[in-house]
TrEMBL record:
Sample GO molecular function, one term: RNA binding
Chain segments carrying region Disordered: 18-80, 96-229, 265-284
Residue ranges, compositional bias (Basic and acidic residues): 169-229
Biological source species: Papiliotrema laurentii
Gene Ontology CC: RES complex; U2-type spliceosomal complex
Family: Belongs to the CWC26 family.
Database matches in InterPro entries: Bud13 (IPR018609), CWC26_splicing_factor (IPR051112)
Sequence ranges of Low complexity compositional bias: 44-54, 147-161
Protein's name in the database: Bud site selection-related protein
Length: 331
């Protein structure tokens, strides 16, 4: 069986266990302890099979392991090898760490064993400290204290344990504000809609007031404004008026009267506002009395119908006049 262990250790195993098995098989000084029967192998709990009286309980898995020789490789229990003076002892430890490389007998320096730590930049250290502020630890007071002091301390600890609420952000919308949407899902600005409604209402009131003024008469309103302005100017003027008063003479001259005999050659009509230019020269007559445009060069480019129309009218009138004269010639 030892040859089987050595074969399996050399072909399929590695590490301290394999080295121990190979050392055991190669060194004749190593002694193997005899396996003693365990008490749990017998129902009565005694160390011998003859002392048992009753049904023997056997595990099929243990029987299968005995047939296949799996128990022969139990190197951690009673079957562990007894190592001589020159051979190290290998036993399984309870450590949960996994060994990456095989153990070496070369002594290592303390600098190689301790992990190397890279120097930390003071700027990075300050940035990390600013990003994660240290947690403040409140010290508890010792000695005799009253119930009120203990309640106050507990309230302060509970308030410190609660996370402070974040400061309200100005750019962040109010979560409690109602969001209005139209049929298509578009968000509606209620304040903008109210402002537009107020502007539309003010514009409608202004137009209604203008329509009322138009109904009263624009000319009458203008006359009232001029009269109010004149009355305001009369406050600063003197009471007496003379014949050489320029303002009075101008106002009397501007008044138009229907029976004024000198209106044709004394008065000049005022031109109020811009006027369109008109053609000032002579032009051939037409049935409707429409003058040509002010840019007309004097050339008649019509079909001559208007000229013939007036010629026929004049010929008819002349024939009628001649006929009347001939009929009354003998009288």
């Amino acid at each position: 069986m030892s040859d089987l262990k050595a074969y399996l250790a050399s072909k399929y195993m590695s590490g301290p266990k394999a080295e121990a098995i190979l050392a055991r098989s190669s060194d004749p000084t190593i002694k193997k302890r005899k396996k003693k029967p365990k008490n749990e192998d017998y129902p009565s709990g005694s160390g011998s099979a003859s002392a048992s009286s009753g049904v023997v309980l056997k595990d099929e898995e243990d029987e299968w392991n005995r047939r296949t020789g799996a128990d022969d490789l139990d190197l951690e229990g009673d079957d562990a090898p007894v190592i001589g003076k020159d051979v190290a002892t290998f036993r399984k430890s309870n450590s949960a760490w996994n060994k990456v490389a095989a153990s070496t007998s070369i002594p290592l320096k303390s600098s190689d064993i301790t992990p190397k730590t890279e120097p930390v930049d003071p700027e990075d250290e300050s940035a990390v400290a600013a990003a994660s502020p240290p947690k403040q630890v409140t010290k508890r007071k010792g000695g005799l204290r009253t119930a009120a002091q203990m309640q106050e301390e507990a309230a302060l600890a509970a308030a410190a344990a609660k996370s402070p609420s974040p400061e309200p952000d100005a750019d962040r919308p109010d979560p409690t504000k109602t969001v209005h949407r139209d049929a298509s899902g578009r968000v509606l600005d209620v304040e903008a809609l109210k402002e537009e409604a107020r502007k539309a209402e003010a514009e409608e009131k202004r137009k209604e007031k203008e329509r009322e003024e138009w109904g009263k008469g624009i000319t009458q309103r203008k006359e009232r404004e001029e009269r109010a302005q004149l009355e305001k100017e009369m406050i600063t003027k003197k009471v007496e008026r003379y014949a050489d008063d320029v303002g009075m003479n101008r106002d009397m001259r501007d008044v138009e009267r229907w029976n004024d005999p000198a209106a044709e050659f004394l008065t000049k009509k005022k031109r109020k506002g811009p006027r369109r230019p008109v053609y000032r020269g002579p032009y051939p007559p037409n049935r409707f009395g429409i003058p040509p445009g002010f840019r007309w060069d004097g050339v008649d480019r019509s079909t001559g119908f208007e000229k013939k129309f007036f010629q026929y009218q004049n010929a008819a009138v002349r024939a009628e006049v001649e006929a009347n004269a001939w009929s009354m010639e003998d009288m």
